[in-house]
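Example record

The entry below shows one chain as it appears in the dataset: sequence first, then structure tokens.
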Amino acid sequence: MIPESTNGPDQAGAELLPFVAPTSSQMRAAAAIVDSPSVIGAYAAYDWGELSEAAQVWIAAIVREARR
């Protein structure tokens, strides 16, 4: 089965927007959240510096969208 293109409308018919990379301030905010004692303690999560660059961008984008 060939997956549908992600460049067109999503399943609900809404047009998908292009990905916009997080700004440096958004990256710092995400790093502060990831490295906070409550996140590391509750989830035994990786520390920001242990994440790949792609994972850092992905998390920063999620944080940015959650803050909207």
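Notes for this example: Confidence is low (pLDDT under 50) at residues 1-5. DSSP finds three helices and no strands in the chain.
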